[in-house]
Predict the structure.
Amino acid sequence: MAQIKVIQIKSRIKATKVQKLTLDALGIKKMHHSVVKEATPSIMGMVKTVHHLVEVTNL
C-alpha cells in the first residue's frame, strides 16, 4: 500500500475535541510535526477529519 506523510500546519487550539483526539491517534503531537502512515481507509478517514489542520503528501 502507498505511504503518506502527514504534517500539522495549523494549531489545534480552537479545534474540537474529536479533532484533537484524531491528531493524537495519528501520532501528531505539535506544530510542524510529521508522521509517515500507510494510506489505509481508516487513516484516510482520520486525515479527512482534520484536513484543515494538516498537509498530506504521497511518498
The longest strand covers residues 3-8. Helices lie at 17-26, 41-49.
